[in-house]
Amino acid sequence: MTARSPIIITVHHLNNSRSQRVLWLLEELGLPYEIKHYQRDAKTMLAPPELRAVHPLGKSPVITDDGLTVAESGAIIEYLVDRYGAGRLKPAADSPAALRYRYWMHYAEGSAMPPLLMKLIFNRIESGPMPFFIKPIAKGIAAKVKSSFIQPQIDAHMNFIEAELAASGWFAGAEFTAADVQMSFPLEAAAQRGGASAKQPRISAFLQRIHARPAYQRALERGGAYALLG
Ligand SMILES: N[C@@H](CCC(=O)N[C@@H](CS)C(=O)NCC(=O)O)C(=O)O
Fold this sequence. Notes:
The protein is α+β, with helices and mostly antiparallel strands. The chain has helices at 19-29, 73-84, 96-127, 135-164, 178-192, 201-211, 214-223, and strands spanning 9-14, 33-38, 62-65, 68-71.
């Protein structure tokens, strides 16, 4: 009988990014892992080219494990929970919470993040360098797009999420699951970009609860500073 090789999951971790939630999940599951750190370019905020050697898109998070490379936060989270969770952090397959789990796992990146990303881009257009004679026009267009389209979209999502949290305070059923880990990033980004407000006390309470979890704290210690872009 040959001994099973020990698990060595490598998280290719970009500073101030979505990969923080993968570290958090690994801490929640108590799995051994190593971190390979990558720093954003200070000017463009893009990932360094080395990350493209791991995965062609060069985005974070991406993990390598047992000869596999897994990209895309939702796919990584589902892979880790399904392969190593032994039933933890996931509702039972035939329970009503299972569909909610799947829904939020997709919704986070598929629906919640696009308007938040647009807000980040348009904030940067407003504040970025440009010739003085274009600045008033560019700022006017950015402000108009934000107020007429982006912010109403974000408000609709935040109000929807606020209502959905009413049942238990968690996204998929009565218990904390990996869907809460996946949903943490859009809510942290919204809090940073002025999307979640005092009008959404359940979202604020959710963020406070997750930030107080020992596993979340340990992930911060291992991952280093985590300040989302505004
Ligand atoms: N939907 C993807 C998004 C990946 C993504 O855009 N990651 C950002 C970090 S939060 C990134 O790598 N940005 C740097 C770049 O695009 O160069 C996921 O959830 O994994």
